[in-house]
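Risk register update: the risk that structure generation would not scale has been downgraded. Supporting records follow, first protein first.
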Amino acid sequence: MATTTLALRRDGAVLHVTLDRPAVRNAMSLAMVHELRAVLREAERDADTRVLVLRGAGGHFCAGADLRDLADARARLAEDPDALARTNAEFGRLCVDFAETGLALVVVAEGAVMGGGLGLACVADVTIAVEGAQFRLPETSLGLVPAQVAPFLVERLGYAEAKRLAVTGARVDAQGAHALRLAHEHCRPEALDAVLARVLHDILQCAPAALAATKALLAQCRWTPAAGLVDEAAQVFSAAALGAEGAEGTAAFLQRRPPRWTPN
């Protein structure tokens, strides 16, 4: 699909999506939000796409919201008192969409990883922090609130660490992000290609429908006690075991060959 704020590249089952506004460190405009949601919807409809890799152009992931959109919303307040709230909610819907996708989501975090960019890093299944990255929540230092990022930050880091980062506007480097488990991997820039290739290789060994079902079940586990999931989890397992992927995976194991969903 045609985009103005994103660069797209396909590599087999992997769709590489690059935030492409390097002059403003890939600040997230409303146009970018809408294009990211549209790209995700298209990828989810495409049976050949199994993984999204999200990164930024020009050595930065994302410097947060584009303040020009906020200024435009402020200018409309007289005629639309909810203009700012609606603008902010659009980014929240983006985070929810990416958090709930059945596709695997990998974020490569380089340079500025701020505000909304940090939120996207938190919703990723795998976040790779590259040396030189700076994770930061600058909102409170600007008199603002990290409103849409907050739920995902608490989910990734826990309440105490999320609160600490928010109230200090702390800067966290790649190694620190890895130590906090904000990022799952950290590496030097020259090692990024190898680390990303390993992560993608591991993901592509997993059956796509089983991966999506597992993500959905894990999301329920956040809020539902184990006893309340026994019967539903059993149905999810049964559907997978009796489905095409379950049959193929079992056959491949017994025949000591790779299953058909793995790349050649």
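Supporting record for the second protein:
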Amino acid sequence: MKVTVVDARKEHAPFIARVILTAHRSHLERCLWDFLVGGTEAECLRFLEALATTSQPHWAHLSTFIVAEVEGRPASALSGYFEGELGTGTPSLREAIAEASQAVGRTDEENAAGWQRAGSIIYVAPEHVPEAWVVENVATLPEFRRRGLVDRLLAEMQDRGRDRGATFADVGVLIGNDPAQRAYEKAGFEVIAEKRHPEFEAVYNCPGIRSLSRTL
């Protein structure tokens, strides 16, 4: 099995959209993007593809991703970034959502309704200090799982964080996704905090999110 790790390219956009949706759904039926976009899965993926290719970079942007290709086919991916870096914070994401919405024909009213459905995630969202190297949007296509692709991508992304001057990395996991938590702990991460909230649980059917960290 020939595996190559590459920076995400524009032609990866449909794959990256699938990775974002899969990663955020985790072990749940619906996630932030399902609630925000509404409609069908195809509509959600179309929106995420537009979001990944906006002019403004952000934490779900194509430019933050690396991809593991198996025999030339994209199979697994994850993103890494400094949250405090210009262009990757939550305000930039909101601007990018507006741009992506315009690209796919979503109205301001639809976006407002989407935030109303999805907004309880703010109660459990992990908090990162500006110098944290954040790893996020980790997912592998089902047919390529259990082949060590995420381990390889995690190692590569941690090296990139070190090269950027980071001394520690953060990752978040939804409470209840025990396989993902074990994979991160195997890679040297330890649970440092968790956030729970009843409003989030009522919508997402999940108590909250755990934060894990490790030195680099």
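The two ends are 29 Å apart (CA to CA). On this basis the risk owner (M.S.) recommends closing the item.
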